[in-house]
Amino acid sequence: MPKNIAGLNLYNLKEISKKLDVTSSTLRAYIRQGKIKGRKVAGKWLVSDEALRQYFNKKERSNEKKRKVKG
């Protein structure tokens, strides 16, 4: 269950990895690479729902561009 701080929903990597069926290591790599924005707080990575939305929007736009090039 996400933590809500000042109206901001924050998820830890374990929660996200279960939902997306990827490992926490993969998510940490995405954060290092700048694919997903995250913040380390008290030794744990947290990702906002907005950061996840941005990640999926970028991925969707990237897939659309690839389809246009192929099509």
Question: What do you see in this structure?
Answer:
The protein has 71 residues and is an alpha+beta fold. The chain is built from 3 helices and 4 strands. The chain has a single domain, classed as Multidrug-efflux Transporter Regulator, Chain: A, Domain 2 (Orthogonal Bundle), CATH 1.10.1660. The chain has helices at 13-20, 24-33, 49-70, and strands spanning 3-5, 8-12, 39-41, 44-48. A hairpin with a 2-residue loop joins strand 1 (3-5) and strand 2. The termini are far apart.
- Rg from Cα: 14 Å
So, CATH architecture?
A: Orthogonal Bundle
Major β-sheet, in short?
A: 4 strands, antiparallel
Provide the residue-averaged pLDDT.
Answer: 88
Strand composition percent: 15-25%
Class, according to the CATH hierarchy? Answer: Mainly Alpha
End-to-end CA span: 41 Å
Element string (H = helix, E = strand): EEHHEEH
Query: What helical percentage do the residues reach?
Result: 55-70%
CATH T-level topology: Multidrug-efflux Transporter Regulator, Chain: A, Domain 2
- Helix count equals 3
Shape: elongated
Regions with pLDDT < 50 over 5+ consecutive residues? Answer: none
Number of domains: 1
**Global structural class:** alpha+beta
Name the assembly state.
single chain
Count the beta strands.
4
Task: Briefly characterize the structure.
This protein has 71 residues and is α+β, with helices and mostly antiparallel strands. It has helices at 13-20, 24-33, 49-70, and strands spanning 3-5, 8-12, 39-41, 44-48.
